[in-house]
Each structure stands twice: as structure tokens, then as C-alpha cells.
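FAQ: What does a multi-protein file look like?

Like this. Sequence, then C-alpha cells, then the next protein.
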Amino acid sequence: MLTAPQFLVPLMQAPVAVLGGGISGRAAAKLIEKLEASVVIYDQAGGQGVEEVFQANQHRLLVVSPGFELDHPWVMEARSAGLVCLAEIDFASLFWRGEVVAVTGTNGKTTLTEFLSFALNAAGRDACAVGNVGNAFSEVVAKRDGGAPDSIAICEVSSFQAEALHHFRADAAIWTNFAEDHLERHQSMTAYFMAKWRVLERAIGGQVFAGSSVARVAEDYGQSLPESAIIDTEESAGDILLRGTAFEGQPQRENFILAAAWWRAAGLREPVLYAAAQNFAVGPHRLARVGEYGGAVWWNDSKATNFHATEAALSHFGGKVILIAGGKSKGGDVAAFVERIQSRLKHVLLIGETRNILATLFGAAGVSHQSCADLAEAVRRASEIIEQDDEVLLSPGFSSLDQFSGHAQRGDTFVQVLKSVIFSS
């Protein structure tokens, strides 16, 4: 049976406020109700069972979804009113009885989280993937009554979640890589780095593992990593045992190297990890081959919502690619991004809010390009210019939230247009 830590008991005598009516917020509400406390969900977007006007004076405890920034007016109002404010992942961690392995990074963290959970279950351990992976920690804690002492939560932690951590504790922390992202929220690379650094700080007494790019930039931001924490994820030789798996080449090779580093440190048998790799499939919208049309192969990498992810996807191909790119800006140096990828491109179809600035920059670089009203037009135009052996890649490099509810809807739309309009013609 779940019981609240002593410091929370008096705070939960009043209704608990939850900010956010999405996955994390509603999961936190379920956990609060399981604790036999009352809860009020607030969200300006509205929705069933959601209040749109925040009433701080009715509460003593506030649980905040990661979509709410630390300086959001409601969060500031709650603090001014003396409420204790906890991030959803922080709140959930107070009730988890098992181990926690925290995973963060600019890219690859979802795949690594899912793979470690998959491999541990294959090894006969009770493991679950939680956090930013789409399965809120609060949801799992509520369903499992806090988990068993030998359960392992592989917890993906985004920078939005990490910046507010206070109670969360990890038995180990893995940081895949670091590159430009989320500057619309963190305002600077330093702030973005330090938000993620908090994940390593929460591995109190545990082990930490960091990929090559993290090690390179840590010193620039005034931080140092122990030598044992630095894992060479970029220059290591290929592994014949991974041939034919999702981890055969980059960018997924980096994930396996980090998984193996933690696996060995945990005293687990490496053959089991390699066997799991043979049976593991990466999630949808991650450099997935959709099919062939007109002699060209079409790829869905809609989950590429930042520059680093698109660059990693392009490195998968030997020749020049027809790229579909663009979306909602997340900050960052767009000109530098264009400069880095221009030599890899045969043609670019541009979509979303950033299509005009991208058209200007690709035009200045002499890269053939077209601006499109939407993704469907981009797919149609690509189908008109493809030649034998072309590779057509949706890897936007930007957020999907200007035209879609998320990267999954963007990827689904891409596949739907291909299958219903292009492949069937």
C-alpha cells in the first residue's frame, strides 16, 4: 500500500493542485487519488475535469507537469502563496520502492530507455520504461503500488523535467549526448546543459555514464566528469555481433555502447544484452524505412525535432538525400545548421513556420529547394522529382507543433500520404 512521506501528509490535507491536463498531469492526479487525497487539475487549454482559473489559496501542494516553465505565472503565484511545488517526476519518485536508472540526452534517450527496459525483462528482471518516454512515472507508481524493491524503473528525464528536480534519486544516470536544442525554453546552451547536469547530480552515490559529446563540452560549462564516467560513443569500432540489428550503425550504435557500459557495471551478462539487441525494434518515426516508389526509398524520421537528430539521420546515407525539413523553431543557429548539412542534400522540401528562413539560407548556399504549404504538398513534390536510387527523408530538424499535435502525428501523416496517395497511384 502506498503511503506518503511524512512531510507531504499535512500538505495533502487540502486538495492537491496539478498543473497540466496532459499525460503527466493526469497521471499525477491518479497517483494522488490512490493516496486517498483530493486533487484539482488546472490547465488553460481546458478539457474534461480541468479548471482553467488557478486558485492558489485553496492548496498547500502543487504538482507541476513538465510543460509548465518554472517562471509560469501560476507557478510563481503558487510559490508566493507558500505552496510546496514539486515536478511530476519528483513527486512520483517519492513513492517508488525499486531502483531507478535515469537516462537523459539531446537525442537517443527514448530508444536507450526502451532498450534497457526490454533487455532487462529479457534477462528476467522486473523493469519498466517511465518518464518522458510517454509512460509517466506517476502512472507506473500508481499501477504498481510503488513497485517492488527489486523492480527497476528506467526513467527518461527531459531537460524540462530535470531543471526542477529536488527529491528524485537515481541509482545510475546515463547521458547520451549533448547538442543544441530547446533554446526557446532554456534561453542559452549553458542553461540547457545545467538543466541536464541535474540528472547526474541526482545519482547520489550511484554511477554515471556520459557519451563523448557530453564529455567534450562539460568543461566549457564549468563541470568535470570522473574519468570512469566518460564512454567513447563516437570513435569506437563496429561490432560484428550487432550486424543486422537496430544498433549496427550510428546513431543507434551510441545507444548500445552506453547500454553496455551500464550493463557491465551492474554485473549483468553481456551475451543477454546482445541477444536482446537482436530482437529489439526501435520505436516508430525513428529513421524508419516506409517503402519504395518510383525507384526511390522513402524514410520517416519525424522524431528528429532538432538539428543534431537530422544530422545523425543524414549520416546514415552514403549519397545525397532529398530532405523534407522545417517546422516550429526551438531556437538555435539555423544558419550554422544549414551550412553543416548542405553538402549532403540533393534537394530540400521546406514546411512549417521556418520554411521561409530556411529557403533564404538554402538559396544562399546554392541548394536546390522548394517551399511547401504543408507536408502533403512536400510529399507530392518529392514524388515528381525523384529518380532511380534516390533516398527521400522526412527528418524535419524542428518541432512539429506549428502544424501537428506532435511528432507522431507528423510521422503518421507522412506515412498516410505516401501509402494512400503516392504508393497507390
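And here is the next protein:
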Amino acid sequence: MEKSISKKYKLIVFIAIVLVLIYGVYSIMSVSYIPAQLYLESGTVLVNNKQVHKSITLSENDIVETKEGTATVFIYESIVILVEPNTKISISDLTKSHPRINQQQGTTWSQFTKLAGVEDYTVTEGNNRASVRGTGFELSENKVMTGLGVVDYSFNSNQFSVYENRVIDNGAERATTPLERARIENNLKLAIKQLQQIRQKEIDMHPILVGILTKTIIGKIIERNEKGEIVSERTASKREIEEYISRADKGEYNVDEITAKIPIKVGFVQKVADLTKEIQRLQKIIA
């Protein structure tokens, strides 16, 4: 009887280990994106009239309101929405290909990155609507300002295509002012910072895989003496990995060439690569 229980127990443990391994492999091979999440940046921020004290996930119809605070909302980790103080937005639709936000008051900067299969993105503000397919823009009451790309903007039933460094202000088109261009650059820098945080979070979730990939991508760190003789060989330190990533962000490395070195194609690698290429793209704009 005891032997029977022991065998049954071992079988259960074996099945549990196999399931854990399968889940682990699946999580590495697949790519997952959180539909909507909020990162608390500073001050007082409410979600559905309740103050939040940490980053949380969001759902359709959730209402985000900043008082004197600021927050960042990510849609499928692809659209970065910088929510300024005294702003109120709601999540209208989380359909992956066509997410929608309703902006009831205040000012937001939206950075569309074309990741995660999102095709376009729409923000409504009163009777006005801004739709994009890969750009960065600021939206406030009766005003849209495009930082890069093109925004399709509807104002009181009038249709506009708002190009880079152009503004539609109460239905009138004009060029951005020096102060507005400075705001655009600052918002791009903030968007880059947020994309880097998303990437770091992804890296932190896969420490073992990162260690293996580091050996493939960076290789061994060889230290030599004054005569050129090899003193030691080691793997890259955390600081050296961070420096490598920083140089990649500046465009010093070709991301596609790096990923081509990796024999097994896993979702984690592609996600990190896509985020890095988007960071490189934005870095070039503000360089």
C-alpha cells in the first residue's frame, strides 16, 4: 500500500515538473503583451475615482485621472501615453488592432510604436478625433500637435492631415513654435525612457536566458596584459551588459545582425529586439 502511494506521489511530482517546464518553454517561445497598464509617475493619480499607489493593469472603460500628478499608460506595450497633470482619460476600446482612448480633459502625448500588431490608434476629445498609424503627437482641448509622422485629425467635422511640426489649433493650422518643439523633444525623451523600462522589465523576467544569450551575443570578455598576453577570460558583467544595451540604443549596433546570431528564435528575443529598434528610431529623431 505504501509503495502504491509512493509511486502515485512520484507520478504527481513528475507531471507537475513537466507542466512547469512546458509552461517555462512556452513563456519564452511566445510573445505576450499586457493590453493596458498604468505606471504611476508622481503625485495623485486616480483610477475609477480611487487613488493608486503603484503600477496597475487597466481594463476597458477604466477612467484615469491625474490631479497634480502624472502617469504613463501603455496599450499593448506599444502605445505610450504620457498623461500630464489635471488630465482625465478613459479606455474606450482595447481591441488589439484598433485601440481607442477618450480624452475628457487635459493634455496627453501619445507615442505609437507599431509593435504587438497594433494597426492604428484613435483618441477622441469632445467632438474631435485624432487617428494615427505610427507617430507621436500631443492632444489637448481643440488642439493637436504632431511631433513626427502624420496625424489624421477631425475638428468640428473638418478633416486635417497634420504633418511633423505642425499644429491645428481651434481649426487653424500653423507651424510649431520653438517652445512647442522643445516640448516635442522632451516628450520623445520621456517616451524613450518608458520603452527602456518596458524592455528592462522583460529582461528581468528571463535572467537565465539573458545569461545564455549574453555569451552568444557579446561573447567572452578577454583581458590582456601589457604584452598582449591573455590574462583572463570571463562573461560580461551586469554593468558591461548595460553599457552594451546603451550603445545599441544609440545605434552603434545593428539589431537584426545581432538577432541573426541566435540559433533559436524565441519570442522574448524578438520583443526586446523590436523595442530596441524603436528606441533607436526615436533616438535618431532627437539627435
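Q: Is there any per-entry metadata?
A: Some entries carry free-text notes. For the entry above: Residues 8-29 have pLDDT under 50 and may be disordered.
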